Amino acid sequence: SDEALVHPNRPREADEEDYALCFAVPMNAPGLTILCRDLYAEHADQERLPLTARFDEVDATLIFDDVLVPWDRVFVYRNPALASQFHRSLTRLDGGFTTAVRLLAKLEAFVGVADLLSQWAGRERDRAVQVQIGQLIADVEVLRACLHTAEAEAQVLPNGFMAHRMSSAYRLHGIEASDRAERLLEDILTSSLVLTGGASDLASPEIGPLVERYFRNNAPSTRDHLRLLAVAADMVQSAFAARTQLYERLQSGEPANMRARLYAGAPVRAAAAARLLRFIREEWIPPESPA
Question: 214-236: per-residue pLDDT in tens?
Fold first, then answer.
C-alpha cells in the first residue's frame, strides 16, 4: 500500500484523549519502521500445507519513531467522541460485511471437508457425526441469514454511501461459530488429522506404493484423500490455522467489549421493556363465558 490509515480499533473513552487519533501517513515516511512477522508460507509444502502456501497474510507492526504527520493528514486529534465516530463509520461501510462474507466461505469449507472425509471414512451414517455436521450447517445458515438481512435492510448514509445494516450480534455469532467449527472438525476427524503421509509421497519409488495402498480409505483416489486431509489439518492444527483462529476471535476487538457495546446501544432493550411494562400494567378482563 502507499499509505497507512491509523485509527483506534475500538471507541475511546473520554479520558483517553492521548489515544483518540486518526491520521494517514505514507509507508515510506522518515522514522516509520515496519516490522513483519515470520512468513508461514515461505517454506510451506503446497501438498502438506495447501492453505498456508496460498493464503498467508503478512501481519506487521508499525513503529513511529519521531514521524512527522502533516496536519492535512490528521482527521481526528485528541477527540474521543470523534474518534469513536470515525471507527463506527469505517466499520459500518464495509468492514463488518466483508468479514461476514469471508467467514461464511470459511464455514462452508468446514462443512465440505467434514462431510467428504466422513463419507470416505464410512462414517456418514453415524448419528453422532450427522449431529456434528448438522451443527456446522446450522451455523452456516444463521450467518447466511445475517448477511441477507444486512443486504435487505441496507440504507443510504447522510454522506451518500450505501451501507449494509450490520450488527455486532452478527460478528459475535461468527466468532462463536468459527471456534465451534474448529472443535467439531477435530471431533469428527479425530486422529486422522495427525498426518503421517502426504500426496507428494506418492511420487517416491520407495514409499509411494505403501502410501497408495494404506491411505486411500473409500476416497476416489489416494491422492484425493491425502490432499483433503492436508486441507483439514491446515484448517485446525498448523501455525496458519492458529493465527487465523486468533484473528477471527479478536480482530474486531475483545468479544466482551463487543457485547457491552451491544448492550449499551441496542434499541431492543427499551422496546422490550416498554412492551412488558404495558403488559403487566394493563387490566385484564377475562372473556365472558358463552351462554
Answer: 999 999 999 999 999 999 999 99
- pLDDT tens string 53-73: 999 988 999 999 999 999 999
Tell me, yes or no, if the pTM score tops 0.70: yes
AA letter at 240: F
Compute the average pLDDT of residues 97-111: 94
Round to whole Å and give the CA distance between 130 and 16: 50
Torsion of CA 101, 229, 250, 184, to 10 degrees: 90
